[in-house]
Design goal:
The protein is about 10% helix and about 40% strand. It is mainly β and about 350 residues long. The strands form four sheets. Strands 6, 7, 8, 9, 10, 11, 14, 16, 19 and 22 form a ten-stranded antiparallel beta sheet that branches. Strands 1, 2, 3, 4, 5, 15, 17, 18 and 23 form a nine-stranded antiparallel beta sheet that branches. A two-stranded antiparallel sheet has the order 12-13. A hairpin with a 4-residue loop joins strand 8 (about 130-135) and strand 9 (about 140-145).
Length: about 350
């Protein structure tokens, strides 16, 4: 005979206490990028672009701060493009990830098909892949067989925090009140510009904030996979109604399922698949990273011209992926497929010994 009033135990009751880990609202660089990226607009200086044997280089200039970044576009054997963005004259070298790439990738010289001060079109010589760079505002379109399959910075979410001289040293050097930081003391603490606190832990940023971010629009794609490790569904979900996917190594016992918090490993490698095409994005950054995903559906309801009757209108779906990292540089590999097997080969070529 069963005992009356048997206590029910849920798996959720034994899951980890999430209060001891950060969610997006507690991550300072996420708050900064969400609040401040709208203010930053970049323009590429294409009239001074240099096309070399290994890469094409040009400046990207912030319209608000007038500080320039250095962008480099590489063509790599096997239908791979690489984009690197770094400070043109950093205060000190920013961290770049070693020991992940098996060796220096073999580059393919990119050829300029056309170009002027407003745009630049690069091709790998085969003609089936083109990289269209627009100057103002800065944007890159990856084109295959006259179809745009991926756009970079089409949402204007390029974000790059420059290393700064410590406030005390700057004040001593200038011997006057510092006016270069456009934020009150309260705002600085809220945004974690120079110091970030979580529980009993304090993270002091000697050279100020150094986060980076960039958006990618995948045209015609709505099925995304990858960026392990999370106790979530195989297909990545929209994050517009909740936390972003977090890439941060944690040894979590009793982790919660159906959750986007990071667990044992972090692999910043994302796959997008649709009928006839597969793409990959490999974001080479080892710092804490957050990934937002938003899919615009393929079917929308619109009002017809004949009256207020809702009708289905077929439109091309699009998925926007926003990568944000706490530090380092922007170093991203675009794996253009076109088949799933091709993408796996491209990733293996970069990372497997």
């Amino acid at each position: 005979m069963e005992a009356a009033g048997k206590e029910e135990i849920s798996v959720e009751d034994e899951a980890v206490d999430k209060n001891i880990f950060k969610d997006c609202s507690k991550i300072a660089f996420y708050r900064r990028q969400k609040q401040l990226s709208r203010r930053a607009t970049y323009q590429a200086s294409l009239d001074s672009a240099t096309i070399g044997k290994d890469s094409t280089k040009f400046q990207i200039i912030s319209e608000t701060t007038k500080v320039s970044l250095l962008a480099e576009v590489y063509g790599i054997e096997g239908n791979i493009f690489r984009l690197k963005i770094n400070e043109e004259t950093p205060l000190k070298p920013r961290y770049e990830v070693p020991d992940v790439l098996t060796s220096k990738p073999s580059t393919v010289r990119l050829i300029s098909c056309s170009g002027d001060a407003d745009s630049l079109v690069l091709t790998d010589g085969k003609g089936d892949l083109k990289c269209n760079i627009t100057a103002n505002p800065f944007k890159i379109d990856l084109v295959s067989q006259e179809e745009v399959v991926m756009s970079i910075n089409s949402l204007g979410q390029l974000y790059f925090e420059h290393l700064q001289i410590p406030l005390k040293q700057r004040a001593a050097k200038e011997n006057k009140e510092d006016t270069s930081v456009d934020a009150s003391q309260e705002d600085q603490e809220d945004l974690g510009l120079w110091e970030e606190k979580f529980g009993k832990f304090v993270d002091v940023k000697v050279n100020g904030p150094a986060s980076v971010g960039l958006d990618f629009s995948l045209h015609g794609f709505e099925h995304l996979y990858g960026i392990p490790q999370h106790a979530e569904s195989h297909q990545l979900k929209n994050t517009s109604d909740g936390d972003a996917y977090r890439l941060y190594n944690l040894d979590v016992y009793g982790y919660k399922i159906h959750d986007k918090m990071g667990i044992y490993g972090s692999v910043p490698y994302l796959l997008a698949h649709k009928l006839g095409r597969t793409l990959g994005i490999f974001w080479l950054n080892a710092s804490e990273t957050l990934v937002e995903i938003n899919t615009e559906p393929a079917v929308k309801y619109t009002l017809t011209q004949m009256g207020p009757v809702a009708a289905k209108q077929k439109v091309r779906c699009r998925t926007d992926v926003h990568w944000m990292s706490e530090s380092g540089i922007i170093d991203v590999f675009l794996l253009t497929g076109p088949t799933p097997s091709d993408v796996f080969k491209q990733y293996s070529y970069l990372t497997e010994p």
